[in-house]
Amino acid sequence: MEGKGVLFKVFADIDVFDLELNCTSVEHFVETVAALGPTFGGINLEDIAAPECFAIEEKLQQRLDIPVFHDDQHGTAIIAAAALLNALEVNGKKMSEIRLVVSGAGAAAVACVELLFNLGFKRENLLMVDSKGVLYKGRVEGMNPFKELYARETEA
After folding, report:
1. Does the pTM of the predicted model rise above 0.70?
2. 93 is catalytic
3. Which partner for 154 in 30, 36, 136, 148 could form a disulfide, CB atoms 3.0-4.6 Å apart?
């Protein structure tokens, strides 16, 4: 985070300091950050694994009146979307016309596809794969409620 803090300062004149938390549950993490929230103008979450990161970000956004941003999700999504938009423009294609295979189903992958949906990508053109294989309807191994959102009907 120290390097990102320098970028915040240089490009936006935002003062940053890094806090490391040793929390053992989503609730403990949320309570701790919420208690510290009034001290800050914004919270940049870093290195929180899925699926816990989704619950943490959502709960903090509901409880705090300052921006809460999970860099691993949204920072990655912004860069990926910008690259894809550029590639589509260069090739004369539209977001709604492409098919996409996403390797990974963690925080960054989920945020990327959600942003792409907002940019016109069609859900039916997505195939998401994790370490256990394709996310498909009816799969049990390695699934969670967030992965279920991207599971699709297959002919296999």
Report:
1. yes
2. no
3. 136
